[in-house]
Design a protein that fits this description.
Length: about 550
């Protein structure tokens, strides 16, 4: 979807909102409760932001609430580092959860549910090996066959299941399966495995358990335990819905309902924790919060604001079919927000020295520069101006065409916040390279009090040689060379852009010494920048968030 298309899209209720409104109107629910259920096995990415904005946003809209539930039923890969980062990211996006919950806190209840199913004759312990189970499963076009263990009595199943819990059976020797229908057209309904033996340490329950419930026997039940009214997940869970409903029905517990929407996919990046983890572990990026990463922490470090991400998620809406969103739409929203809030400052990337010959040596003049013309509250600051300054090399052209409004021999240009200067002489080295310009400033032409009568069409930025601060700029390009990384059949790492980070040593006006991690800047005529967390007082580092306009070559 392009920026234009999305602008044209009218704001109307999406299909989940329609369902909620109907449920509230019919009295099926008095209020709504949603949940965001991350698995703590990695950092959150912009796809999760979509889910967060959707779940918290709907609850806010309809006066309901949202639980943050860590879906931590799989003991391997999970870590408290991830739990902490997830909480920080949800808060940063601007949302507060009703309760912080852990699916692992329900292990005892889930175990009781499993016994209840066994007692009802609706679950059995299967001693088949996983390959045997797979073999009897059938195919989408052929029905499966019953396991030889399917007709065990509830008493025998209960006994075996209790032994499994007590650690009396090795991993892989037994599983608990729901007894549904081996000939169901939905393969997931063919007696799904709901418990397996795993002698693994869990980040919260430690070594208390050696049997763990599978997704299908944990997710819907957790929803139900919490009385979640609308459980929203992504499309790949459509076939799981039948299992979800079956289990809730047979267990006779609170009837939570599952609804599915399309995952967010963005061009030039990947959106799977497994792949993002690989990029981190193999050192292709500098950690989960590398500013090139589509993670929330990466976007934050890159200079994105929570508002820009929320606005983006709102604009892309809730789709029922998978699609690929152009990353320039995300960039449009951050640019739009930064334009309103970022202070304009002067930073010269590629310096050319200019000596202003009619300013005495050692004299310093204060120039008052407006911080942000888009925000009258933002005030102004003082930038020191002196005899020797730097301008951008490409703001001067020796053989300039008539319509060139920056500096040229004999030409005039305004220095932002300071004076109009006129170029008198071009100084070159032995190789013919331009190394300096000699100019003079025009009397009475200072910004804001100009009575000189001299007309200029161009305004350029500059820094004083005596006062500038050296800064490192980190300028990022797309992480991958191809827009649709998922469509690539080979190894996604083949598509990595080797040139996604460029480092520039630049000269900044002295006010940037005071920059904090929360400040947002527009480096005039260059782009939006933010201080990086690796910055040191003696070495300031800035990340480029995004350019001033969408100039990315297709
Ligand atoms: P990944 O494939 O990146 O590991 P996941 O779906 O396994 O993602 P979870 O931690 O299980 O990650 O996801 C938490 C919630 O976020 C789920 O409800 C999931 O559907 C949702 N979610 C994950 N990725 C996306 C995405 N790209 N777009 C929208 N929602 C997403
Ligand atoms: Mg998952």
């Amino acid at each position: 979807m392009s920026v234009k298309e999305s602008k044209e899209k009218e704001k109307s209720l999406h299909f989940i909102e329609e369902i909620i409104e109907a449920d509230l109107a019919s009295g099926k629910h008095k209020s709504i409760l949603t949940r965001f259920p991350p698995e703590p096995n990695g950092y959150l990415h912009i796809g999760h932001a979509k889910s967060i904005c959707l779940n918290f946003g709907m609850a806010e809209k309809y006066g309901g609430e949202t639980n943050l539930r860590f879906d931590d039923t799989n003991p391997v890969n999970e870590d408290t580092e991830y739990v902490d980062s997830i909480k920080a990211d949800v808060h940063w996006l601007g949302y507060n959860w009703k309760e912080e919950l852990y699916a692992s806190d329900y292990f005892e209840t889930l175990y009781d549910y499993a016994e209840k199913l066994i007692q009802k004759g609706l679950a059995y312990v299967d001693d088949s090996k996983s390959e045997e189970i797979a073999e009897l499963k059938g195919t989408p076009t052929e029905p499966g066959k019953n396991s030889p263990y399917r007709d065990r009595t509830p008493e025998e199943n209960l006994q075996l299941f209790r032994e499994m819990r007590a650690g009396q059976h090795p991993e892989g020797s037994k599983v608990l399966r729901a007894k549904i229908d081996m000939s169901s057209p939905n393969m997931l309904m063919r007696d799904p495995v709901i418990y397996r033996i795993k002698f693994a340490h869990h980040h919260r329950t430690g070594d208390k358990w050696c049997i763990y419930p599978l997704y299908d026997f944990a997710h819907g039940q957790s929803d139900s335990i919490e009385h979640i009214t609308h459980s929203v997940c992504t499309l790949e869970f459509v076939p799981h819905r039948e299992v979800y409903d079956w289990l809730i029905d047979k267990l006779e517990i609170f009837p939570s309902k599952q609804y599915e929407f399309a995952r967010l996919n963005l061009t030039y990046t990947v959106m799977s924790k497994r792949k993002l983890k690989l990029l981190v572990e193999k050192g292709f990026v500098n950690g989960w919060d590398d500013p090139r990463m589509p993670t929330i922490s990466g976007l934050r470090r890159r200079g994105y604001t929570p508002k820009s991400i929320r606005d983006f998620c709102d604009r892309i809406g809730v789709a029922k079919r998978d699609n690929l969103i152009d990353v320039s739409l995300l960039e449009f929203f951050i640019r739009d927000h930064l334009n309103k809030i970022a202070n304009r400052v002067m930073v010269v990337n590629d310096p050319l020295k200019v000596t202003i010959t009619n300013i005495p040596e050692g004299e310093v003049e204060d120039c008052i520069v407006e911080n942000n013309p888009e925000d009258p509250e933002s005030g102004s600051r003082i930038v020191p101006f002196s005899r020797e300054i730097f301008i951008e090399k490409d703001d001067f052209l020796e053989d300039a065409p008539k319509k060139y409004f920056r500096l040229k021999p004999g030409g005039v240009v305004r220095l932002k916040g300071a004076y109009i200067i006129e170029c008198d002489e071009v100084v070159k080295d032995e190789q013919g390279e331009i190394i300096e310009l000699k100019c003079h400033f025009i009397e009475n032409s200072k910004s804001g009090q100009d009575t000189s009568g001299v007309r200029t069409k161009g305004v350029i930025h500059w820094v004083s040689q005596q006062h500038y601060v050296p800064v490192e700029l980190r300028v990022y390009d797309r992480l991958f060379r191809e827009p649709d990384v998922n469509a690539y059949e080979g190894d996604f790492l083949d598509l990595l852009n080797d040139d996604s980070l460029q480092i520039i040593n630049a000269y900044a006006e002295p006010s940037l010494r005071e920059a904090t991690l929360d400040d947002k800047f527009q480096f005039m005529r260059q782009g939006y920048y933010v201080l990086d967390k690796e910055s040191q007082p003696e070495k300031l580092i800035f990340n480029k968030t995004v350019g001033l306009r969408d100039s990315w070559k297709k």
